[in-house]
Structure formats: C-alpha cells, structure tokens
Amino acid sequence: MKQLIVNADDLGLTPGVNRGVLRAFQEGIVTSASLLVTGSAFEEAVALARQNPELDVGLHLTLVEERAVLGREVLPTLVDETGRFPRTSSEFFRRAFLGRINWDEVEREIAAQIARFQKTGLRLSHLNSHQHLHMFPPVFQIVRRLTRGMDNVSIRNAAGPWRKSPGVGMGRWVQRLGLNLTCLSARGLHGLPRPQMPDGLYGFEVSGCLTRCALEQILRKIPDGLYELICHPGEDDADTRTRYSHWGYRWAEELEALTAPETRMVLEEQRISLTSFVRAFGRGSKLSS
C-alpha cells in the first residue's frame, strides 16, 4: 500500500506563503504543514490554522538564517548581535565542527520554539526543520530528548532515494547523499528510543522548484510504505520575492502543481492514498500552556 503525506514547509514565513499553503490544502493535495514560529507572518498562520482544523500542523524548527526566539544574552555562540542565526547550514556546520557552538544553547532555543508553538493551542503532530538540521546527530539527540514525553509527535525522516534522478544536478545529488548518510548516523544513535518517523522523504532534490513535471515524476516512483513529500507552495508576491529571492524558490509554480487536476489523476493512477501525520500515527500531542 502506498501512503503519502504531502507536507508544506514554511507556514508563517510571509503572508504570501501562508495564502499559498492554505490554497494547496483547500484546493490541492497538501495534507499537512509545518509552522515556522520565528516567521514574520506567524500570528496570521496560527489564525489560519485555527480556521482550518483539518490541516495537520507541525513545527518547522530553524537554527539558520532567521531570528531566534531567545536573545544573544542567552545564545552567545548561536546568534549574532542582531539575534540572528548563522546565514547558512554550511556556516552552522563549520562552527559546530570547530567547537564554537554550545549545544546547551541549541537545546534552550529548540525548547523555546516548541514552547512558542505550545502557546498557540494548536495540536502538534510532527516536527522537522529548515534545511533538515534536526537530522544532524547532536541536534537529533536534543530533538529526541525534548519530544520523548509527547504522544504521537512524528519526526521527519529526511532520508531519500540514493539513486540520482534524471534532471537532478550533480551538486544537489551529492547533497542528497550527504543527507542520507547524516540520517543513517542520527537514526543509529543509542540511548533514547527511536521516534516515530515515515519511511523516507521525497522532493529534496527539487526543493523549491517542484514543478508539475517534477511532481509527476516523483509520484510515479513512490514505493509501498508511508512516505513524506516536501513542498513549498506560495504566491509570487513582492514581499516574498524581495525578502527571499536568494532562495531561488518558485512558490507559485509549486502551488500550481499541487492544485492541478492532473496531479490527482496521477495519484489515482499510481494508487497512492493521501494521508497526514495525524491519520497515519495518531492524534498528535495537545500541548498545554
């Protein structure tokens, strides 16, 4: 049986992204979304989620680029003078490998992001992260520790296919191999029980540019099991373009692909059942303040 969770990341990033995620859920195949509690449109995203209780909502942790929940006085090795994280995952890894990140600070910040989600009153069904940093073994250990007392909170399994797909650049494929190895290392850690996770992730290689053609190719490769498809729907509005043009994302094209009637036809043809974290694993964790 083929089961697929279609998860939209970056809910709360901008109003344009919020509108795109909501449309992809109401008119398309998106079944869940991940809330960026540090995003500038966080409050609006929470209101939209409350108005759409069938939308499965999780937490999209961030340890790069955005502004931290806690300040520099609490996170001196993790943020700059303006309270922002390292600009890229490469910079984060460089500082981590050089021993310049205090992991107690990382744990305090992740706990603070979970707490900010908690205050919304929304039900937490899953957790993932910007640029998949939650799978970096030191971060993964922290995430496991902080979520082990929560019922039915799933963690994104960012591992994906090892084989290079046609049209995928060599650089992106090498990144996929590196992420797969990181996931193997994280899941092999001893100590705390392994969290509940889907069997793997699709869409990494075309993250931010999930066109209709790319989406159809992915859907035709989904094997039996429970998998997650990552997507980034949004509107091509001036605010999102101005602030995040350096990402190179094609939000509107992803939204079109996710809402196209032809996409549902491929799902039916491939006998793929859409599901969500809540339906696949349980009711999620109702966090009380």
Short description:
The chain is α/β, with parallel strands linked by helices and 289 residues long. The chain has eleven helices and ten strands.
What is the general shape? globular
Percent strand? 15-25%
Give unreliable regions as ranges.
none
- Class by alpha and beta content: alpha/beta
- The average pLDDT is 90
- What's the order of the H and E elements? EHEHEHHEEHEHEHEHHHEHE
Provide the fold topology.
Elements: E1 2-11, H1 15-27, E2 32-35, H2 42-51, E3 56-61, H3 89-97, H4 103-120, E4 123-124, E5 126-129, H5 137-147, E6 154-155, H6 170-187, E7 200-202, H7 212-219, E8 225-231, H8 238-244, H9 251-259, H10 261-269, E9 272-275, H11 277-281, E10 285-286
Parallel strand pairs: 1-2, 1-8, 1-9, 2-3, 3-5, 5-6, 7-8
Antiparallel strand pairs: 4-10
Q: What this model shows, in words?
A:
- The longest helix has 18 residues, at 103-120.
- The protein is of the alpha/beta class.
- Strands 1, 2, 3, 5, 6, 7, 8 and 9 form an 8-stranded parallel beta sheet that branches. A two-stranded antiparallel sheet has the order 4-10.
- The mean pLDDT is 90.
- The radius of gyration is 18 Å and the shape is globular.
- Helix 5 packs across helix 6 (170-187).
- It has 11 helices and 10 strands.
- It has helices spanning 15-27, 42-51, 89-97, 103-120, 137-147, 170-187, 212-219, 238-244, 251-259, 261-269, 277-281, and strands at 2-11, 32-35, 56-61, 123-124, 126-129, 154-155, 200-202, 225-231, 272-275, 285-286.
